[in-house]
Amino acid sequence: MSPHPPSLLLTLRVNGLDVEVAAPPHYSLLEVLRYKLHLTGSKQGCDKGDCGACTVQLDGQPVLSCITLAAQAQGREVLTVEGLAGREAHPLQDAMDRFDAAQCGFCTPGILMSAEHLLRTAGREVTHAEAAHAIAGNLCRCTGYTKILDAIVDASTKTGGGR
Amino acid sequence: MSAPKKDHVGGWHKKLGAMDRMRGLAKYTDDLELPGMLHAKIVRSPHAHARIVSIDASEALALDGVAAVITGRDMPIPYGIIPWTQDENALALDKVLYVGDGVAAVAAIDEDTANEAVRRVKVEYEVLPAIFDPEEALRSDVKINPYSRKGNLTKEVELEFGDVDGALAGSALVIEGEYFFEGTTHAAIEPHCALAKVDPDGLVTVWSATQVPHYLHRELARVLELPARRIRVIQPPLGGAFGGKSEPFDLEFCVAKLAMITNRPVKLLYTREEVFYSHRGRHPMRMRYRTGFDADGRITAVESQTTLDGGAYSSFGLVTTYYSGQLLTAPYGFGTYRFHSRRAYTNKPACGPKRGHGSVQPRFAMEIQLDKAAEALGVDPIELRRRNAIAADDLTINELRIGSTGFLACLDAVERASGWKERRGQLPYGRGLGVAGSTYISGTNYPIYPNEMPQSAVQVTLDRSGRARIFSGASDIGQGSDTMVAVIVGEELGLPLEDVRVLSADTDLCPVDLGAYSSRITLMVGNACLNAAQELRRKVQGSVAKRWGVEKSRVVLADRQAIDREDPSRAVPITQAIEWAESEHGLLAAAGSYNTPKDRHGSYRGGTIGASPAYSMTAHLAEVEVDDETGEVRVIAIWCAHDCGRAISRGLVEGQIEGSTYMGAAEAVLEVHAVDPAHGGVHAGPSLLDYRLPTALDTPAIHALIVEAPDAQGPYGAKEAGEGPLHSSIPAIANAIYDAVGVRLDELPFTPERVLAALEEKRKRERQSPREKLPLVAQAAEAEE
């Protein structure tokens, strides 16, 4: 088989902007984000759905973009770590920064996308146990998760109470 | 105004560059893309041991989009991180030595084409007998590594200090034990990745996810047969390493060679499976220990015999073999000591250094031995450790000069924080507490290749904008070394971290540093940086003092100002102070370098290995719950007190304590890196799922307790924090399991199968002798008779 079958033309909404992109039909969402749109914030750690470093949100739900076909995102809303912050850092990013919760930072984009979903759907202060469940699909090798969980709980006090 | 505030050293800092990483802006190696870039892949051996009969790349080269195929013949010069054991080639020359050994590399216009080209490279093999057991390898006539000089023995070390046999004979108690530590691997979340390009003037630039840019630079020059000045190595932001990126790998040579051949940039990213096969992780070690004690529980003798399963190549194995004995001699004094360690080649992925290089395995054995002795003697396990603790500035039995030690404070801290005194012995069956202690080096006094040049160097410049720049060779691998040097410069020059820019790990721009291994950076690069920053500070102070007509010592640099210590109302902005100094001296630049003391090591052959400027101390206390029906061990909490000398940045030190403790706990209960001999030596689980990396739900509550016993050798007294706090995590859990259900687990990891087997064994024993078991002292006495 030729490694180059005809490309698909996809229309996605990525981080609030509509984009059209041509990609081979077997491309994962991660490949389209990294190779076609040059959004390299989502990471490839295992390429088989084990590590969670590629986690993005599809219509507001965390998904593993390395095992999501790009075609599945056709016409849908994709949020990556690059779209998380506005002019100011997202409260989760700010908390992770204050808690020194990112060491090498490679797993952090995926963790942020999982944790943002938790905070948004909870709408209140979350517990350590809830935070641990929310990021149980995101492997971190540096931190032992301690400061990450502290940071998520801290951020939830800022995103949860006021709404 | 208020008194000058100095909140840098010892404070809590946001890590430099962390926000870039958290916003997805930092460019790790695989995030780099160059115009016209090709993608490379490596053809790997399906056999554990085979002769390469022929390689036919014609079908691969015929594929559209394939630019080049290379084999071992294109880079025949052997290399190896240790100059005395250069026993590997970038790609196999005549033989493959393990499943996964690289045979050829292809470069193509994209990954898909490269993968297809890999499938089309035809390699004919003559399969040879493969050996997976180190003892068998040592007996066998089959020679695994063609560069080996002594059959399958890669290194043997036998050292004796004092009359061990005499001491054992005169001991009140002798504990014997056999321990097995199955291998584990680093599993950094970022896979290895390298990118190379060749400039029109011939400069070869290699970007690599490495923790040793300098050693990579040297080995690239050797294998590519280029002068080092024509090679530039850059380490981009790195996604974790833990020792797994501390030597050159095939991909770095391949991308450079392919870029030279194709004249286009070439990138290669390992698959996760390739990361597992490339390994260089913790050696499996089988260890036999005899430990003698006097009636008070003082260690009279330690004797060990250790077999290290090295895998196909030497890697750091020469050092590992020494470390398996040399690094055990603190925090406890030994009356006498003998160790005999042998490292064997096997047809497996090569082992190397993983966090706590060479000493995590013997520490596991030693701390269980101590626990057994404490029980036999009826002494509290913490008290037994206190009785044996060495003192500050002691010389160990193998002549290592211990500087500061906060070990007793570490024991006090975990005892207090865990409620040991109140809770131990009061917990229900199935729940237990265990303690262990350890030590680690803050770098090594002697570098990997013999030379007398500094081990670390930095250049610091300061200009009228008020910004300091640090050019540092150090590799920030996530541990925060960039932040550490910025804190030191900020402290000395009165600048906030945001005014300090760090350029690091680029062999063209930065001075040589030997890399991020052996926990050397804080002490060595920190000292180099302190020297340079102090030189600049003195210049600025001097110029301000001249303008003010006061003594230099009155000028304090703090809070972006120069302030008169005796009249704090007199102050100028730091930019003004710098302008005065720059006017007086010209460019404000200082070079700082650090070399290790060369008078602190053993006076015997091998006595330099294990010698460090300073030693960190650690105590772990673990609480576990053991389900005696399922055999599952749940680690509930671990308290870790770590003496880092001085915490230059508290959050970063805590992070190292937490991450190390987690990694140890993972090795204790979950992780195994092994191949399957029944299936020809394929990896037993080369994925993060099968390897069972702990998730947030599997990780215990970790309580990091910083202990500070400042050491005269360290910057502001600082010692290491990156590796020490892993060691005793594992035996603390083993000892807690014994406390919980009364079984000793002397083999790692503590899987449900092993726990259940041990419980069954215990029940059998109890059925046979229903009376209370004899204390070990009596058993030992019986054995003597």
**CATH A-level architecture of the largest domain in chain A:** Roll
- Measured as a percent range, the helix fraction of chain B is 25-40%
The secondary structure category of chain A is alpha+beta
**What is the top-level CATH class of the largest domain in chain B?**
Alpha Beta
Query: How does the major sheet of chain A shape up?
Result: 5 strands, mixed
Uncertain spans of chain A = none
Report the sheet with the most strands of chain B, covering strand number, pairing sense and barrel closure.
7 strands, mixed
Overview of this protein structure:
- The complex is a heterodimer of chains A (163) and B (785).
- In chain A, 32% of the residues lie in helices and 15% in strands.
- Chain A has 163 residues and is of the alpha+beta class.
- Chain A has a 5-stranded mixed β-sheet, with helices on both faces.
- The relative contact order of chain A is 0.15.
- By secondary structure, chain B is an alpha+beta fold.
- Chain B has 22 helices and 29 strands.
- In chain B, α6 (213-224) packs across α7, α14 (481-493) runs parallel beside α15 and α15 (521-548) crosses α16 (574-585).
- The model of chain B is unreliable at 1-5 and 781-785 (pLDDT under 50).
- Classes of the chains: A alpha+beta (163), B alpha+beta (785).
- Chains A and B meet through α2, α3, α4 and α5 of A and α1, α3, α17 and β28 of B.
